[in-house]
User: Fold this.
Amino acid sequence: MSLENCNKRTLMDYCPDIKVLDCTLRDGGLVNNFAFTDEFVRDLYEANIKAGVDYMEFGYKASKELFDTKDFGKWKFCDEKDIRAIVGENKSPLKISVMADVGRCDYKKDILPRKDSVVDLVRVATYIHQIPTAVEMIEHIKKKGYEVTVNIMAVSKVNSDDLDAGLQILAKSSVDAIYLVDSFGSFYPEQITKFSQKYVEIAEAAGKIVGIHAHNNQQLAFANTIEACRMGVSLLDATVNGMGRGAGNCFLEALLSFLKNPKYDEVPMIRFVEKHMLKLKEEGAVWGYDIPYMLTGIFNSHPSTAIRFIKDKRTDYTNLMHELMDME
Amino acid sequence: MSLENCNKRTLMDYCPDIKVLDCTLRDGGLVNNFAFTDEFVRDLYEANIKAGVDYMEFGYKASKELFDTKDFGKWKFCDEKDIRAIVGENKSPLKISVMADVGRCDYKKDILPRKDSVVDLVRVATYIHQIPTAVEMIEHIKKKGYEVTVNIMAVSKVNSDDLDAGLQILAKSSVDAIYLVDSFGSFYPEQITKFSQKYVEIAEAAGKIVGIHAHNNQQLAFANTIEACRMGVSLLDATVNGMGRGAGNCFLEALLSFLKNPKYDEVPMIRFVEKHMLKLKEEGAVWGYDIPYMLTGIFNSHPSTAIRFIKDKRTDYTNLMHELMDME
Assistant:
């Protein structure tokens, strides 16, 4: 996507190169420990196809050496047979992705050669200091035949020089797309504008595209996603009903209704919400904008403090603020 | 505020001419029929003073000829004695505002001469076709000695020529500020950019300022407010916890934490949420982002359909969509 084209884009038109990735099972899995029913996953797969979504992320490829399979739902591990039980050979235009964390994935063993898998895209998630290891993973997975993207997490805590250096290393790798990730939901739209410009400039020069993964701590996940889109970011993450860790993510149904690309249709997604998401909430899954997440967003802090606070059914926000200040 | 100055503003700096207006009692009153306890109102008044908020709106000056006082809490009418019971002579820097709807306020009788009132600002709310009547009200209230602002409601349904004509009429009036109002929460930030430019250009030429009143149907109230602010809009409406009709408004606590003006402090507001807002929700007051409001936002439609849908405890979103399409 050329930046010029996208800045000229009006609300009545669209960029054909925009792609949407549904990561409900993966980021939402952090809410309910990946305990989705097969019916939920199958209906989401069907809804994504009908809605024109480009990628559906099934979960993590987590190491079974590091994590006990008894402690998690199956989408923490995304075994090939489990994905195939839902999608068969996946004779649909919807591509399938999985996420692999640097240091928490036995990628040499657990990621099959592309020809033996229905997975299309592997998304490598890395912290800034792990980038050299991430590049080794990227090259290995790329050689196996996959599309590969990389998420640099927690960039709101990374200084500009380190980020520039990291981006330059990734620009030289075989990765297809680099993700701007607002892990703590701490960015305002005008920061997204600047970061998007930086990422797009570096990525485009290397023939790559840029993605955005936003969190909703300050109720800006959707606004930040469409701002990034305006600035030339073309791979957009979202989840149904914004389901995701803590404050959650960009709402997929809002994003689809915003995008004017004729292939997108929010109706199947709204039907899916009607059938599945209300039940999930009734059963006790908790996510979404709330004061404690707003506070971790403001303090540019990991949401774990707020998640614990809410789990403990605490409402003494003032004390939470003091705790967050002490962590600064 | 000059537009140039504000575009040059960085996140580390601030515009000293920004003013914040808390309209929790007024827009939030539409949720609970203005049934706020005196303790709630008094604590909100104190919290606003501590937080450095510039204006607190107590409610409507509604006509007692048109509305039965038995059907509403007292903040629907904002009698002078009721405001004074909370604020006394209001020996604080916090200014007091009330809202007067064109055609639903006996302003000649019910709005006292400024010297007999603790109210500082009267906000006239008008539809585009009522602007000549609004101007008559504005001049009358201005002559009584008040600051006066005007909200043009539902502009997302007004054609550009009519809006331009309406703005030019208001520019010639004695009104102090003109509000950009996203009544249906249907604007995206890039539309706010353009509308803000238009409003600021016309208002500045006439020596007036511009305000923004956003709704949260697409979870963009905060994002749209700070985008307007970036474009030179200087009078910012918000409500505690976003309390307001339907999807509610811009969150005051988020806005205060965003603004870098040293006088603003979100802490008293977060304490207020802790003490009062959770209880209000427990007692059954319902507002905030939800699929039905997102749909009326997308369809640029009055939220009343969604409010009824939610009151009826319906969750058949697909049918709601059909109903909204039929109303197009």
About this structure: Strands of chain B lie at 19-22, 55-60, 95-101, 121-126, 147-152, 177-181, 209-213, 235-238. Chain B is about 45% helix and 15% strand. Residues 291-327 of chain B form one domain.
